[in-house]
């Protein structure tokens, strides 16, 4: 049986189904066997004030579902609306692929995988915003 493998650094925190778990003094590896468990690495978490770009806002919504701070049906609609808006701007094939994979994950209720796909767009967004500011 396979599962999600988390590799944690010493002292790293992770949110699992609403519970904050902190790793001890050594690196560790955990396998999450429960399907559809809500997992969020707190080092990767976007704080409310950091959700200040289109991709970051969509990531933040997915993160709220994983932390248990948003109702799934409402968040699903917001995520799909946000992805639709992003797809009108991010036209390259890699971005389209990430957005399609995120949409599929949301449809399957896998918000962790959706967040992972959406986070992959952050460097691209950062480059586009930097180029637009220049």
Summarize the SSE layout with pairings.
Elements lengths: L3 E5 L4 E4 L2 E4 L5 E5 L6 E3 L12 H14 L4 H16 L5 H15 L3 H9 L2 H12 L1
Antiparallel strand pairs: 1-4, 2-3, 2-5
Helix pairs in contact: 1-2, 1-4, 2-3, 3-4
Describe the overall structure:
- This protein has 134 residues and is an alpha+beta fold.
- It folds into 2 domains: 4-43, no CATH class; 46-133.
- It is built from 5 helices and 5 strands.
- Strands 3-2-5 form a 3-stranded antiparallel beta sheet, with helices on one face.
- A hairpin with a 2-residue loop joins strand 2 and strand 3.
- It is globular.
- The mean pLDDT is 91.
Task: Sum up the overall morphology in one term.
Answer: globular
Largest beta sheet: strand ordering: 3-2-5
- Terminal CA distance: 50 Å
Question: What is the overall number of helices?
Answer: 5
Q: Can you tell me the residue ranges where pLDDT is under 50 for at least 5 consecutive residues?
A: none
The pLDDT mean sits at 91
Which structural category do the helix and sheet elements fall into? alpha+beta
Proportion of β residues?
15-25%
Summarize the main sheet.
Answer: 3 strands, antiparallel
Number of strands: 5
The quaternary organization reads as single chain
Domain unit count: 2
Query: Which sequence of SSEs, written as H and E, runs from N to C?
Result: EEEEEHHHHH
| Helical residue percent band | 40-55%
- Roughly how many Å is the radius of gyration? 15 Å
């Amino acid at each position: 049986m396979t599962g999600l493998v988390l590799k944690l650094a010493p002292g790293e925190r992770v949110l699992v189904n609403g519970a904050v778990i902190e790793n001890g003094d050594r690196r560790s590896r955990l396998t999450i066997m429960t399907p559809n468990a809500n997992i969020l690495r707190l080092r990767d978490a976007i704080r409310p004030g950091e959700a200040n770009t289109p991709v970051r806002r969509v990531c933040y919504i997915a993160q709220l579902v994983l932390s248990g701070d948003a109702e799934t049906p409402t968040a699903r609609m917001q995520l799909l609306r946000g992805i639709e808006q992003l797809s009108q701007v991010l036209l390259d094939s890699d971005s389209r692929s990430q957005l399609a994979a995120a949409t599929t994950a949301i449809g399957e209720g896998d918000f962790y995988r959706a967040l992972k796909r959406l986070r992959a767009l952050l460097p691209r967004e950062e480059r586009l915003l930097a180029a637009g500011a220049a």
